[in-house]
Structure formats: structure tokens, C-alpha cells
Design goal:
The chain is of the alpha+beta class. The protein has two domains: 185 residues, Fructose-1,6-Bisphosphatase, subunit A, domain 1 (Fructose-1,6-Bisphosphatase, Chain A, domain 1), CATH 3.30.540; 130 residues, 3-Layer(aba) Sandwich (D-Maltodextrin-Binding Protein, domain 2), CATH 3.40.190.80. The chain is 29% helix and 24% strand. The strands form four sheets. Strands 4-3-5-6-7-8-9-10 form an eight-stranded mixed β-sheet, with helices on both faces. It binds 6-O-phosphono-alpha-D-fructofuranose (P6P). 6-O-phosphono-alpha-D-fructofuranose binds next to loops.
């Protein structure tokens, strides 16, 4: 590792972050350390008897993998007594996790402890997504209502991607930074500052098997991509679908593209598959901070006022010019 690259703690303590609260810096350092431990477990896989189903289900109606539970429990244990949080919320838990009053701090931590679980057993990249909000009060018992803040209120958001490299991606509201873990030292080094998503792209990501269920604006956009240079877009497109939002979003942060998990008529009463509070909101803050756009078809995702903790949302995010075109199709439909 070239020695001039800052470590994560050097980045947090740099002049650029001089106005960031020390409590928040400490929290983010703890989150990064938790992700290092999850990375170690993910990369052990079968050797640690951590593959396969745990034989239980979560509030989402999904079968929990052993690593889902391991990651969730590790995050709870790591943060319950550090004095930075008033409460935590997780994709894997029905209700919030309240911190004991004498150990409370000013923040709320929300996470999808292991996103992309269906990829665990087939050795495809997965990740941890996190979002940080300010707690409205640390004196009385925190409630689910404390968490129901729109995504633009996030004070920090990011993810860890467990792939060929373990990468920690963060925004504190002043751009997006990427840190790569040195496998020997287990240290995160700043490897990309001020990430910028290209405004245009020739790559889209969506689960094509749901095509017959989509709303018209989505069908129109994807069909035009498929018509390529012979159609109205007058250029050919490529398609990707990793089925790990963290991996698909990471690719978009690096080289542009569009990620869509839109509403479809399979479950018409649900706005979408992905969860607003701990998937769409953190990813939307990262995408916007990197110059991209993130919508649900009607509005900016970060403006959505949540009504429940595990609320789902339709997600279309990525290269600004493409997502703005998708928004235009929704408005003209
Ligand atoms: P499908 C993973 O379970 C996840 O929540 C996202 O990470 C991913 O983009 C999506 O679901 C994949 O869903 O229906 O293609 O398996």
C-alpha cells in the first residue's frame, strides 16, 4: 500500500472533516470495524460453518441465512454499549433495538446487515448497508417514530462491499469517498475521493424476469434500451443484474449506469421490493452526493416521508441524464 494514502481514521480526523462531531466520527470508525469482522466471516464461508439457511424467517418474509443473523448480531453487540446511539434498526429485526438509558448517545443507526444474501452460497459479492440519523431525544425511550425521518436528514450513509476487495464507501454529506481494506493489515485506506457518477451511460440493471409485470414507463424505458442503435435512443446498451444492490450500486458509482427495482403488479399493494430506510435512503444519499439521481418514479427518494420502519419503495437510481429520462416517462404516462 502506497504510504501516502490516508487511513480511515486519518481521513475522519483530516481538515475536511473538522466540523464533523467527534461522536459521529467514533460511530463511523466502529461501523467500519464491524464491517471488517463481517468481511472476515464472509470470506471464511463454509470453513466457519456460516453458509446456508438459518432455518428462520424475518419480517420481510425472507428466509434468513446464517450470515444474515451473524452480521446482525455482530452489529448489535458492537454498538449497544459504545455510548453513540439511542437505538438501532435492522432489516432482520421486526422492531427497533433500544439502548439502555445510561448508555445512550445522539444517533440512530439503521442497517441491512447483509444485503444480497441469496448470493452468499454462490460466492458472489454481498455487502452491509448503513444509515445514520440524529435522534430527536436521548433522554426518553426512543421509539419507532424517532426513525421515521426522510432520507435527506441522514448525517452519514454508506456500505461495505465484500467482493474481490473489501471496500468501505461513505458519505458525510460532502461527497463520496471509497476505502479499500489491505488484506494483510486489515486497515482501510482512502483509495477514491469525491466519486462522480458519469451523467450518461450505456448500461442498465434490472431483473428482466419481471418484465411482464412492470408499469408502462419502465417497460418503455427498458424496451428503448433493448432497441439500441436501431431505436429512439440511437445507441446500444449493456445489461447487468447481480442481485446484490450493494454490488450493482458500486458499479454505478464507479462507471455510471442505472439500477431499477421498480413497483410491479406481482404485489400491487407494495410500492416495491426494496426497503426505504436501510437500503434506498443510504444508497440514494450516496448516489446524489456523487452527482447522480434517485427517484421512486414520482419523487426524489430522499424527500419521501416514511410512515413505517420497514416501508418498501420503488427504486430507480444512477446516471443523472438517464434517471431524469425515466422520470420524464413517468410524468408523461
Ligand atoms: P431479485 C437482495 O435480496 C435485494 O434486496 C437487493 O440487494 C437486490 O438488488 C434485490 O434484492 C434482488 O432481487 O428479485 O432480483 O432476487
Amino acid at each position: 500500500m502506497s504510504q501516502q494514502s490516508k487511513t480511515f481514521i486519518e481521513f475522519l480526523n483530516s481538515e475536511k472533516n473538522s466540523l464533523i462531531q467527534q461522536d459521529l466520527k467514533d460511530l463511523l470508525l466502529d461501523v467500519a470495524n464491524s464491517c471488517k469482522k463481517i468481511s472476515h466471516a464472509v470470506h471464511q464461508g463454509a470453513l466457519a460453518n456460516l453458509l446456508g439457511s438459518a432455518g428462520t424467517g424475518n419480517i420481510q418474509g425472507e428466509t434468513q441465512q446464517k450470515l444474515d443473523i451473524f452480521a446482525n448480531e455482530l452489529l448489535l453487540e458492537d454498538h449497544a454499549e459504545k455510548g453513540k446511539l439511542a437505538a438501532m434498526a435492522s432489516e432482520e429485526m421486526d422492531s427497533i433495538y433500544s439502548i439502555k438509558e445510561h448508555l445512550r448517545g445522539p444517533y440512530l443507526l439503521l442497517f441491512d446487515p447483509l444485503d444480497g444474501s441469496s448470493n452468499i452460497d454462490v460466492n458472489v459479492s454481498i455487502g452491509t448497508i448503513f444509515s445514520v440519523l440524529k435522534s430527536s431525544s436521548i433522554t426518553n425511550d426512543p421509539s419507532e417514530a424517532d426513525f421515521l425521518q426522510s432520507g435527506k436528514n441522514q448525517v452519514a450513509a454508506g456500505y461495505a462491499l465484500y467482493g474481490p476487495q473489501t471496500i468501505f464507501v461513505l458519505t458525510l454529506g460532502h461527497g463520496v469517498q471509497m476505502f479499500t481494506m489491505d488484506p494483510q493489515s486489515q486497515e482501510f485506506y482512502l483509495t477514491q475521493e469525491d466519486v462522480q457518477i458519469p451523467k450518461d451511460t450505456k448500461e442498465f440493471a434490472i431483473n428482466m424476469s419481471n418484465m411482464r409485470h412492470w408499469a408502462k414507463p419502465v417497460s418503455r424505458y427498458v424496451s428503448e434500451c433493448l432497441e439500441g442503435s436501431t431505436g429512439p435512443r440511437q445507441k446500444d446498451f449493456n445489461m447487468r443484474w447481480i442481485a446484490s444492490m450493494v454490488a450493482d450500486v458500486h458499479r454505478i458509482l464507479i462507471r455510471g449506469g442505472v439500477f431499477m427495482y421498480p413497483w410491479d403488479q406481482r404485489e400491487p399493494d407494495k410500492p416495491g421490493k426494496l426497503r426505504l430506510m436501510y437500503e434506498a435512503n443510504p444508497m440514494s444519499l450516496l448516489v446524489e452526493q456523487a452527482g447522480g439521481v434517485s427517484i421512486n418514479g414520482q419523487q426524489r427518494i430522499l424527500d419521501i416521508q416514511p410512515s413505517k420502519l420497514h416501508e418498501r419503495v420503488s427504486v430507480m437510481l444512477g446516471s443523472a441524464n438517464e434517471v431524469n429520462l425515466i422520470m420524464k416517462y413517468h410524468q408523461s404516462n
